[in-house]
What we know:
Elements: H1 3-6, E1 10-21, E2 30-39, H2 42-53, E3 60-68, E4 79-85
Antiparallel strand pairs: 1-2, 1-3, 3-4
Amino acid sequence: MTDADRSPEKIHYICQTYVETKAGRNGQTGLKIAKQFEYSTASEATSRAEREALSEDCAGADAYMVTEDPTSGEVGDPSFLVRLGNVPEVADF
């Protein structure tokens, strides 16, 4: 039996990028998710976020991990590894 078979939780490492949206009637710009990438390690997700944040069309990037209960499908709150550039408030996530 492997460690993965014994573990009741599955960990997902995500890099998520954002682009700015055009100003609405209130004159404020917003953010929307542009891309999401899943990796097998925290360092891979963090490295991708760092590279994506340097892109001219990227407003910001997050690298985070979430834990999933495979029996129920429930996913926990994100645990951020790095937040770069213009990213949403954690409460908006």
